[in-house]
């Protein structure tokens, strides 16, 4: 049975197409504006990850294969094998295709990413329109259009925007159709597989969406086909990596992020040093172990240097978990926001706001130490993020109450999954994959709240008029 909330508006919008076009125009404008300041210059649109993606793309174009060119000891520890296993080839292939067509021109990459993000907005609008109403579709679209994280990431040479589009396209296919035919199930599974090519964490979306499809279709074939196709690449890539590393895994980032990044945060508290100093210390220890025993000891080396801090200090681990959740849910873009507006504000490629200032108290103390512009920009993002989460919770509860439990449960599971797998990295851009479902929930929460307030005001007004007439 197709579930759908009753429309709470009196009728459809008179000019929904015009409103959608206006929304797309606003989204394009706010994403294009930074281009006039960063001028597609690599010092403003690059991060360390960007340089690696470009290096992998160039090596594929020159026929060297999917390998990186080590430029520092950090690269050798992150991926000590002759072939790349730390990352999947999706985004480097995306870059390689554009480099082949246009040359090594970053403007082509960013322009296409902006258009891809607009396509994501359109999917969000259509899915919200089907599940809820046109009014809520416009609210969801507006929240997405003005998302600072998406505005920033669309202007960076990073995989986030492409990944978010493929994730949203997969969710759209499963939820919009609900009872897919075998052909549709294969198509949706292919989208999920492509998302895994960009980032391997997408593969766990497959069982969630397979259960959702099974619930609505009541047939085994469509979810089985979807699941088989969706898991094809992650399985094949894990087998490929097993031959190289001896470990069956779609990517080796988990050990690196958990046993170095997370352990470094705890070590910085224990030893009273900065996070960078703690990371460098653990990095040096792990590198020595790998150099002595070879790449086969890579995972063991990382676990050896990090496990002590993860197991010995559970209180600090819990504290870091809470701070990481705060960072991902509320913190604004700080690493790249001023970088892409470098000519306007920062004047250099360095981010103006310290990445190490984490958590609410750190945000307040750090923000007040900056000038009014930086404080205002970050504070507005935190307020925006808090409002979205607040209304998303209301929206999810109302969907659950109005016979859309499968959709509410699915959306909350997707959000929870991406939060969980991103805890170790913990930055604002980790919200990008689930922004689509988050703004759908928030749009419903905002709409029902405004509608309830309007009904309450009208009831009070009517009661006041009745009292006046009685008197």
Biggest beta-sheet profile: none
Query: What is the straight-line distance between the termini?
Result: 53 Å
Flag low-confidence runs: 8-12, 343-360
Approximate helicity band: over 70%
Count of beta strands: 0
pLDDT averaged residue by residue? 83
SSE succession? HHHHHHHHHHHHHHHHHHHHHHH
Assign the structural class, choosing from mainly alpha, mainly beta, alpha/beta, alpha+beta, or little secondary structure: mainly alpha
Strand percentage, roughly?
under 5%
What does the radius of gyration come to? 24 Å
Sum up the overall morphology in one term. globular
Q: Count of helices?
A: 23
Q: Could you give a quick summary of the protein structure above?
A:
The protein is an all-alpha fold. Helices cover 72% and strands 0% of the residues. It contains 23 helices and no strands.
């Amino acid at each position: 049975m197709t579930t759908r909330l009753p429309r709470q508006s009196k009728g459809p919008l008179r000019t929904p197409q015009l409103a959608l076009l206006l929304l797309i125009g606003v989204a394009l404008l706010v994403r294009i504006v930074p281009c006039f300041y960063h001028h597609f210059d690599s010092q403003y649109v690059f991060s360390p990850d960007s340089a690696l993606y470009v290096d992998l793309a160039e090596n594929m174009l020159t026929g060297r294969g999917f390998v990186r060119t080590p430029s520092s000891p950090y690269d050798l520890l992150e991926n000590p094998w002759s072939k790349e296993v730390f990352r999947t080839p999706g985004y480097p292939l995306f870059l390689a295709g554009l480099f082949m067509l246009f040359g090594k021109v970053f403007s082509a990459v960013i322009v296409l990413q902006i258009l891809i993000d607009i396509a994501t907005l359109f999917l969000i609008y259509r899915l919200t329109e089907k599940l809820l109403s046109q009014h809520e579709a416009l609210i969801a679209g507006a929240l997405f259009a003005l998302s600072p994280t998406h505005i920033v990431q669309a202007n960076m040479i990073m995989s986030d925007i492409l990944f978010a589009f493929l994730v949203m396209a997969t969710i759209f296919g499963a939820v919009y159709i609900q009872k897919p035919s075998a052909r549709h199930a294969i198509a949706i599974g292919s989208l999920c597989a492509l998302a895994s090519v960009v980032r391997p964490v997408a593969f766990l979306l497959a069982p969630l969406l397979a259960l959702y499809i099974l619930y609505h279709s009541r047939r085994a074939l469509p979810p089985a086909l979807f699941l088989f196709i969706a898991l094809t690449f992650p399985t094949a890539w894990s087998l490929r990596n097993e031959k190289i590393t001896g470990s069956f895994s779609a990517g080796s980032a988990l050990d690196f992020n958990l046993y170095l990044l997370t352990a470094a945060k705890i070590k910085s508290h224990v030893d009273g040093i900065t996070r960078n100093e703690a990371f460098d210390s653990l990095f040096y220890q792990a590198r020595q172990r790998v150099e002595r025993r070879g790449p086969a000891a890579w995972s063991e080396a990382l676990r050896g240097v990090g496990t002590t801090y993860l197991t010995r200090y559970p209180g600090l681990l819990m504290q870091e978990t809470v701070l990481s959740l705060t960072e991902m849910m509320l913190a604004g873009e700080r690493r790249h926001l001023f970088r892409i507006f470098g000519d306007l504000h920062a004047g250099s490629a360095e981010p103006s706001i310290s990445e190490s200032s984490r958590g609410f108290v750190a945000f307040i103390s750090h923000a007040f130490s900056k000038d009014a512009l930086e404080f205002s920009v970050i504070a507005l993002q935190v307020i925006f993020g808090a409002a979205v989460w607040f209304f998303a919770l209301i929206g999810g509860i109302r969907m659950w109450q109005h016979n859309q439990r499968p959709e509410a449960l699915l959306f909350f599971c997707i959000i929870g999954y991406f939060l969980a797998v991103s805890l170790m990295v913990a930055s604002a851009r980790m919200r990008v994959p689930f922004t689509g479902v988050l703004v759908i929930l928030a749009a419903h929460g905002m709409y029902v709240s405004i509608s309830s307030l309007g009904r309450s005001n009208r009831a009070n007004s009517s009661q006041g008029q009745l009292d006046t007439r009685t008197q």
